[in-house]
Structures are given as structure tokens and as C-alpha cells.
């Protein structure tokens, strides 16, 4: 398995798939050390390294009952969603849209999510913004992409559309139509509660999944800021 992963890393996704005759994954992705791999292609190439026979794409299915179960049984994380999905919770994390200003992309959402993941066991499911505002402001400050310091209320409410986050608002308010500025102001004025979604908290109970989720977050923060800043954040948050 590791030989197939190393080949993928060396060649890059596009060239690996081209040489081995596989299509890009649409739903099932192997997650290893915080990076995503096309699970069916990896399984086929790994089989070749192990037996000398490299399976073609048409020779087996990449679904739950075959590749996903096999890889999971070997201790790997396979990220997938429901029928017709493009991926599961980890892929949703990878493809999270971020705030941009003057050509710079902000890591704010990922910083807040990593903070929440690190504290998932100790904190209640939803927590009042006022209880963590100062802490988040301190954590976000080194990641500023504008002249002004990041407002922790911004990622607090901007994450509302993510499968990773739950934002509690007054009954009758439509989160789908409420503007960001309105919600950001409400976060402070009405002390809105928010936190990791129930589905994420459930998956975090699995040590391997939690480890990969943490690695994805750390990598995305490093990519959007710098490895040094990501390392310092991880040091501050602790284990």
C-alpha cells in the first residue's frame, strides 16, 4: 500500500492516474497523513506491488463493499458521502471556501475548526461566543490577511454552511438568506452559540479519523499561511 502512495506522491495525481489507467475519484478517497488519494486507483496499484498483477480500472468496483472495506480493514481512513455525493466530511473540509482579500486567502475557518477539534472532548457541543471570543482572537491574530486584526465573529458565523459546524440562531431566522455582516454582528450582540456538528463530533470518537481530520486542518492552515505559523498554533493548542 505504501509503495502505491509513494508513487502517487512522486508523480502527482494527474500523472499517476494517466499512467495507471484510472479516473479521478468521484466520492471515495483514501486519506493518509492528511492528504487525499483516489482510493480505487491506490488499491489497484497496491495489488500490483503486492502480487505482480496490476488490476485495471474495469476489473473491480471502488465502492463500499470492495475497496473501501478493504482499505478500512487495513487501518486506513476512506472518506465518502452518500449516494451521488462528491465526498464525505473530510472532503468537505478540504474544499471549504475561504475568505480572500488582496489576493491572500485566510486560514480563519481552519484555525477555528482545529481549535474546536482539539477541545471537542472537554467542551459542550455548542458554546457561547462570549466564552471563547478572547481566546479565538488571540489564536487568529497571527493569521491576519488584512491590516486590521481578524474578528473571531467572522469565522464563527461564516462556517454555518459547512457540514462541520452548527450555528444556533433565533427561531424564525433563515440562515440561508441572512447576510454575513448581520450574523457577525449578532454573534456578539446576542452571544450566539456554535460548535462542531453532531456528525463531526461522532466521527471524532474514532482515533484514526480524528488524527486524519487534524492532519488535514494543519496542512490547510500551513498552505494558507506558513508551516511555521501552523506549527506554532498546534503548539499553543496542545494535544
Poorly predicted tracts of residues: none
The separation of the N and C termini measures 28 Å
**Overall outline:** elongated
| Mean pLDDT metric | 92
**Percent helix range:** 40-55%
What pattern of helices and strands is seen along the backbone? Answer: HHEEHHEHEEHEHHEHEHHH
The class by helix and strand makeup works out as: mainly alpha
The DSSP helix count reads 12
Number of strands: 8
Written account of the structure:
This protein has 239 residues and is mainly alpha-helical. It is 51% helix and 10% strand. The protein is built from twelve helices and eight strands. The strands form three sheets. The protein has a three-stranded antiparallel sheet.
Structural features:
single chain; 10% strand; 239 residues; 8 strands; mainly alpha; 51% helix
Can you lay out the helices and strands and say which pair or pack?
Elements: H1 2-11, H2 13-20, E1 29-32, E2 35-38, H3 39-51, H4 64-73, E3 77-79, H5 89-94, E4 100-101, E5 104-105, H6 108-118, E6 127-128, H7 129-140, H8 153-158, E7 165-167, H9 180-189, E8 193-196, H10 198-203, H11 207-224, H12 227-237
Helix pairs in contact: 1-2, 1-3, 6-11, 11-12
Summary, kept brief:
With 239 residues, this protein is mainly alpha-helical. Helices cover 51% and strands 10% of the residues.
Amino acid at each position: 500500500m505504501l509503495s502505491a502512495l509513494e508513487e502517487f506522491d512522486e508523480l502527482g495525481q494527474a500523472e499517476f492516474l494517466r499512467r495507471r489507467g484510472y479516473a479521478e475519484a468521484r466520492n471515495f478517497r483514501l486519506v493518509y497523513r492528511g492528504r487525499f488519494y483516489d482510493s480505487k486507483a491506490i488499491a489497484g496499484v497496491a495489488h500490483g506491488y503486492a502480487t505482480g498483477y496490476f488490476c485495471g480500472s474495469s476489473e473491480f468496483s471502488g465502492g463500499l463493499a470492495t475497496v473501501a472495506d478493504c482499505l478500512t480493514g487495513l487501518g486506513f481512513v476512506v472518506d465518502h458521502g452518500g449516494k451521488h455525493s462528491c465526498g464525505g466530511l473530510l472532503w468537505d473540509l478540504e474544499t471549504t471556501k475561504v475568505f480572500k482579500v488582496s489576493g491572500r486567502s485566510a486560514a480563519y475557518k481552519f484555525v477555528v475548526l482545529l481549535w474546536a477539534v482539539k477541545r471537542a472532548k472537554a467542551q459542550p457541543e455548542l458554546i457561547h461566543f462570549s466564552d471563547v471570543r478572547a481566546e479565538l482572537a488571540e489564536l487568529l491574530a497571527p493569521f491576519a490577511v488584512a491590516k486590521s486584526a481578524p474578528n473571531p465573529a467572522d469565522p464563527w458565523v461564516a462556517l454555518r454552511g459547512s457540514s462541520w459546524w452548527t450555528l444556533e440562531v433565533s427561531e424564525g431566522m433563515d440562515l440561508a438568506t441572512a447576510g454575513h455582516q448581520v450574523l457577525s454582528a449578532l454573534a456578539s450582540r446576542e452571544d450566539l452559540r456554535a460548535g462542531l456538528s453532531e456528525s463531526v463530533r461522532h466521527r471524532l470518537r474514532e482515533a484514526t479519523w480524528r488524527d486524519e481530520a487534524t492532519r488535514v486542518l494543519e496542512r490547510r492552515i500551513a498552505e494558507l499561511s506558513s508551516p511555521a505559523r501552523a506549527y506554532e498554533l498546534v503548539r499553543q493548542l496542545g494535544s
